[in-house]
Design a protein that fits this description.
The structure holds two protein chains of two kinds.
Chain A (H helix, E strand, L loop, with lengths): L17 H7 L4 E6 L3 E10 L5 E12 L2 E12 L4 E6 L7
Antiparallel strand pairs in A: 1-2, 1-5, 2-3, 3-4
Chain B lengths: L7 H8 L3 E6 L4 E9 L5 E10 L2 E11 L4 E6 L5
Antiparallel strand pairs in B: 1-2, 1-5, 2-3, 3-4
Classes of the chains: A mainly beta, B mainly beta.
GO cellular component, one term (chain B): spliceosomal complex
GO molecular function, one term (chain B): RNA binding
Organism (chain B): Macrostomum lignano
């Protein structure tokens, strides 16, 4: 997936709207950071204007001082309300 | 790619009347059969089981969950 980050005017075709970036990620793996201490990695199947997301083959990481708690889920509808960050092609949290 | 696209409303149509797990922001899990839901993610579950820290704490018949508390709704993949 190639996404140009060149800063440019509105005429430039490399300009991309935020939701276009999310749309380009449909069918591929993404890494989501929630408000709070949760992170998810999974394949994006779709989303709506609230950026609620349908995800498949999901791994949920709950990061706390005691370590990482991992949960695996087949298919989820994730509420967009608590999403803070989405990283295309996500590897998931390291360390 | 459009063949794999599945919007939230497509997903909801697919999982209605099936067993689901609903996780709330508080970390509490509710397992039950999805009776119905709306665009606010308000949910009605039947045969509801309440899990706190992964342990079964209570069972209810029909239960209403207010949508603002919902973190995610999870379902098993449908076998083709």
């Amino acid at each position: 997936m190639q996404i140009s980050m060149a800063s440019s005017g509105p005429q430039n075709p490399s300009q991309i709207m935020p939701l276009e970036l999310v749309d380009k990620c449909i069918g591929s793996k993404i890494h989501i950071k929630m408000k709070g201490d949760k992170e998810l990695v999974g394949t994006l199947l779709g989303f709506d204007p609230y950026v609620n997301m349908v995800l498949e083959d999901v791994v949920v990481y709950e990061i706390s001082s005691q370590g990482k708690k991992v949960t695996r889920l087949e298919q989820i509808l994730l509420n967009g309300n608590n999403i803070a960050l989405m990283i295309p092609g996500g590897e998931g949290p390291d360390n | 790619m459009s063949s794999t696209r599945q919007t939230p409303s497509d997903f909801l149509k697919q999982i209605i009347h099936r067993p689901v797990v609903v996780k709330l922001n508080s970390g509490v899990d509710y397992r039950g059969v999805l009776v119905c839901l709306d665009g606010f993610m308000n949910i009605v579950l039947d045969q509801t089981e309440e899990y706190i820290n992964g342990q079964l704490k209570a069972k209810y018949g029909i239960a209403f969950l207010r949508g603002n508390n919902v973190l995610y709704i999870s379902a098993q993949k449908r076998k083709a």
